[in-house]
């Protein structure tokens, strides 16, 4: 007798108790690509019900093609009609070039049936262009990573309402930002919808991670580290607003689509330039949303307008030591200020010293790390060890 079926998810997800029906099995199958670089990802079954509806069959027709890099060596003139339609759909050949080639073949068609196939193919491609499945220009084409981000944001919009998504169409300032030819400006990226609150941004990030995993586009083993570095570390450790993090994530996804970097090193690619551009775009989108919603424009790239009042936590408290104070920097991150502007940290020197045991700190109240006068301070940035 064949062995009894063993459910890979141990009953956590309801599904027919048969091989190939468990979401885990379906997700694993979606990772595989055939010789033509196509996946067989399916709609609905492997996706949690709370996230269903984000990806349609039309979307999957695009997403299931693993590589959308334009193919300059594609033989347009000698390809079949079906090959031309597939090339336009995958983005490997400019849709305008394909439409022109199909139209050119109509007068030379052998019979009415041949002309009908060409005409219907042109109509089908135009319909896919109208629905956004096919882009009309290589410069506007987004790969799978950006395409999936747009779908995730639109799903979040449906959950919370229309005012949580920013549409940059018609905004002269943002349109101008997307008109440049630099590596970090692109009209198609500018026209991607944006979420307008930190909570919804995190929700969209979560949905992108789930969908990228279940459809075989980027597995959790990779995306977990990528998202941590690009989104959470940037916001928590470096104090950037979610507006900046959102723009930086979009830039990184675009680099992945263009194969400029990999997920393991994209966050170190031109980091200063990319962050500077992300902050400018984040501020512009924040202002754009404020104008559309009728609210007062936010400051600091969409963050809180709190200003340090010169106060900080008592030396006897258990609060951490203030990095801004120790580096002689301005208190310009509202996350580290209370509502009245008080710093949430202690203003004590965090220089390591050699007379207080392992990792002992100076803790003087009259100076910080940058101008520490403690005679026992360590010569380097490492804690003293005994």
Provide an overview of this structure.
This protein has 386 residues and is mainly α. Among the domains are: 81-138; 141-293, no CATH class. Helix content is 41%, strand content 1%. The protein is built from 13 helices and two strands. It has helices at 23-31, 57-63, 81-90, 95-105, 112-130, 144-160, 172-177, 187-190, 198-214, 220-236, 242-257, 271-293, 323-326, and strands spanning 165-166, 194-195. Strands 1-2 form a two-stranded antiparallel ribbon. Helix 10 runs antiparallel to helix 11 and helix 11 crosses helix 12 (271-293). The longest helix is centred in the C-terminal third of the chain and has 23 residues, at 271-293. The chain is elongated, with a radius of gyration of 27 Å.
Topology diagram in text:
Blueprint: H1 23-31, H2 57-63, H3 81-90, H4 95-105, H5 112-130, H6 144-160, E1 165-166, H7 172-177, H8 187-190, E2 194-195, H9 198-214, H10 220-236, H11 242-257, H12 271-293, H13 323-326
Antiparallel strand pairs: 1-2
Helix pairs in contact: 3-5, 4-5, 6-9, 6-11, 9-10, 10-11, 11-12
């Amino acid at each position: 007798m064949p062995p009894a079926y063993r459910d890979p998810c141990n009953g956590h997800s309801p599904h027919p108790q048969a091989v190939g029906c468990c979401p885990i099995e379906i997700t694993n199958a979606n990772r595989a690509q055939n010789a033509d670089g196509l996946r067989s990802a399916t709609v609905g079954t492997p996706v949690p019900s709370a996230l269903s509806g984000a990806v349609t069959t039309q979307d999957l027709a695009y997403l299931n093609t693993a590589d959308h890099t334009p193919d300059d060596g594609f033989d347009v003139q000698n390809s079949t009609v079906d090959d031309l339609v597939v090339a336009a759909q995958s983005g490997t050949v400019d849709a305008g070039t394909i439409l022109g080639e199909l139209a050119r073949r109509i007068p030379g068609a052998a019979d009415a049936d041949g002309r009908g196939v060409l005409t219907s193919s042109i109509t089908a491609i135009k319909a896919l262009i109208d629905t956004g499945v096919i882009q009309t220009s290589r410069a506007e084409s987004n790969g799978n990573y950006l395409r999936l981000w747009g779908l995730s944001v639109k799903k979040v919009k449906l959950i919370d309402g229309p005012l949580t998504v920013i549409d940059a169409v018609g905004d002269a300032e943002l349109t101008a930002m997307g008109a440049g030819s630099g590596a970090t400006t692109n009209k198609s990226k500018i026209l991607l919808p944006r979420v307008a609150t930190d909570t919804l941004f995190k929700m969209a990030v979560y949905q992108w991670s789930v969908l990228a995993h279940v459809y075989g586009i980027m597995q959790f083993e990779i995306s977990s580290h990528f998202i941590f570095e690009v989104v959470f570390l940037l916001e928590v450790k470096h104090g950037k607003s979610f507006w900046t993090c959102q723009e930086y994530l979009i830039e990184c996804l675009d680099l992945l689509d263009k194969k400029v970097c990999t997920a393991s090193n994209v966050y170190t690619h031109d980091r200063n330039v990319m962050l500077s551009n992300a902050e400018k775009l984040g501020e512009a989108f924040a202002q754009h949303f404020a104008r559309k919603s009728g609210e007062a424009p936010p400051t600091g790239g969409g963050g809180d307008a709190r200003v340090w009042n010169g106060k900080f936590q008592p030396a006897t408290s258990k609060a951490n030591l203030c990095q801004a104070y120790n580096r002689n920097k301005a208190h310009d991150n509202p996350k580290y200020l209370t509502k009245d502007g008080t710093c949430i940290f202690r203003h004590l020197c965090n220089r390591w010293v050699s007379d207080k045991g392992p990792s002992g700190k100076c803790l003087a109240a009259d100076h910080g790390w940058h101008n520490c006068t403690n005679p026992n301070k360590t010569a380097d940035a490492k804690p003293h060890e005994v």
